[in-house]
Write a structure and sequence with these properties.
0% strand
Length: 169
């Protein structure tokens, strides 16, 4: 049986939520607000790669922040260990998403030990797949474990600042 890997569904990483969803969690988060203009204007492969990786880093940092905050809510070490184990397992899952998305842009007709050709969209697609997983998990944890408005986002940045980077070049 032939293994066929298809692309993950393409979606705007900052898509607006559907009606009756957790709209305030999704549209009100500072990461997507900060990156909105960057996603609107990014056009070249280097810009998109840079943007995707900075966006991924922002969500990874937020994931670290929320898991650390949740760890601090528990008194018993065995309870903290549950969160630590979950964090490690989720990070492994997110890394595997990156690798699967990368494969979709790779010439898989060539053995892995040989030089495989990789499409120019591999880096950004893989980073966005991983970032989307971190984002979903952070928003889920906020929804499940925090009373409305009780979670404080760590992210205070201003996106990838593509306009400013273009001005410097």
């Amino acid at each position: 049986m032939e293994n066929v890997i298809t692309a993950l569904p393409e979606a705007d990483p900052i898509e607006e939520p559907a009606e009756n969803s957790q709209q305030s969690l999704i549209s009100g988060n500072p990461i997507d607000e900060a990156f909105k203009t960057d996603f609107d204007i990014a056009s070249s492969t280097p810009e998109i790669n840079y943007l995707s990786n900075v966006y991924l880093e922002a969500w990874q940092d937020e994931w670290d922040n929320i898991t650390t905050a949740l760890l601090n809510q528990f008194e018993m070490d065995e309870d903290r260990q549950v969160i630590r184990d979950y964090r490690l397992n989720f990070q492994a899952y997110a890394e595997s998403l990156y690798e699967v998305e990368w494969l979709d842009y790779t010439d898989t007709t060539v053995p892995a030990e040989e030089h495989r050709l990789v499409g120019t969209g591999a880096m950004s697609a893989a980073a966005l797949a991983q970032a989307s997983a971190y984002k979903r998990e952070v928003l889920l944890w906020i929804d499940r474990y925090y009373i409305e408005d009780s979670y404080s986002y760590k992210y205070k940045g201003s996106g990838a600042q593509l306009l400013q980077r273009r001005d410097r070049e």
